[in-house]
Amino acid sequence: MTSQATHESMWKDMTGVAFTQGYLDAGGVKTRYLRTGSDDKPLLILIHGTGGHAEAYTRNMQAHGEHFNTYAIDLVGHGYSDKPDQDYEIKDYAKHVLDIIDALGYEKAHVSGESLGGWVAAYLGIHHADKMDRLVLNTAGGWTMFPEVMERIMRLSMEAVNDPTVERIRTRLEFLMHIKSKVNDDLVDVRRTIYSQPGFPKIMKKILCLQEPGPRKRNLFTYEESGKITSPTLVLWTSHDPTASPEEGKKIADSIPGAQFSVMNECGHWPQFEEPEEFDKIHLDFLLGK
Fold it and tell me: Exposure of 115 by Cβ count < 10 A (0-12 exposed, 13-18 middle, 19+ buried)?
């Protein structure tokens, strides 16, 4: 008898997890979230990357909800959150995150971001230290400017939104993974549905401004700026990140006073999804100060 591959479902990721999906008003932006944990716990905000959505963290919600009031969000312009006609640069995303913290009634939050999310987290650490507890910069943008990477992200993203077929969506997601088979059908269909929303190509063009040389350059950090981060910080990188090498990640960590640096092997740009158990161990040990 020929064996069949097991279907990988996000519902399986969330089995046994008491979670909610909902919307909150963050400074006038209807903001979608996935949430685990409870109000009596410290706030943890998980932020996806460019063109992403809260499902980037479905495999991490249970472990983190045991210790934190955990919100995986759709950034403004992304997922099912509002998509206003505005600028989509780092300060604009940072304002959205600050408005979320305020809307939830917290004075400050732990913030962990992947790629674009890490770029936003670092900006918050530099400019709004009083609102930050611990920071995690997971394969974070914000320091490098590699034209070939920028062009590839723009091309794959626009192809996926202009023609949101299963094949094009899968190709965009496979860019994120070292082992391509980890892109499962459920993840493809979730993103295909998001990218099929009316008007999404227009908003994607705005989102991708940070892959254009001019806007990217004015949003990049100097190592002197990242030296202003005072929050305890973990810089988490991977062996096969498609946007920057572990050596680049180490430079970032070395520029932040007291930052920890960790590299996950056999992972690409989504270590929290690719190897969730290892990620959760590293991530929680840091966030809990172990």
Answer: buried
Distance (Å, whole) CA 61 – CA 283: 12
CB–CB of 111/47 below 8 Å? yes
* Torsion from C-alpha of 24, 206, 156, 174, nearest 10 degrees: -20
CB 61 within 8 A of CB 37: no
The CA angle 275-277-279, to the nearest 5 degrees, is 65
- What backbone torsions phi and psi does residue 138 show, to the nearest 5 degrees? -100, 110
> Is the domain 11-144+223-287 a CATH 3.40.190.10 member?
no
The mean pLDDT value of the chain amounts to 96
Strand partners, 237: 263
CB atoms within 10 A of CB 53: 23
152 burial via Cβ count (<10 Å: 0-12, 13-18, 19+): middle
**Tens of pLDDT, residues 147-204:** 999 999 999 999 999 999 999 999 999 999 999 999 999 999 999 999 999 999 999 9
DSSP 3-state of 96: helix
Largest CA distance in the chain: 62
Locate the domains of the chain by residue range.
Answer: 11-144+223-287
Residues 6+ positions from 205 with CB-CB distance below 8 Å: 158
119 has pLDDT over 90: yes
- Reported pTM: 0.96
Alpha-carbon distance of 2 to 175, in angstroms, equals 30
- Cα separation of 163 and 102, whole Å? 38
- What is d(CA 240, CA 267) in angstroms, rounded to the nearest whole number? 6
| CA 160 – CA 183 distance, rounded (Å) | 15
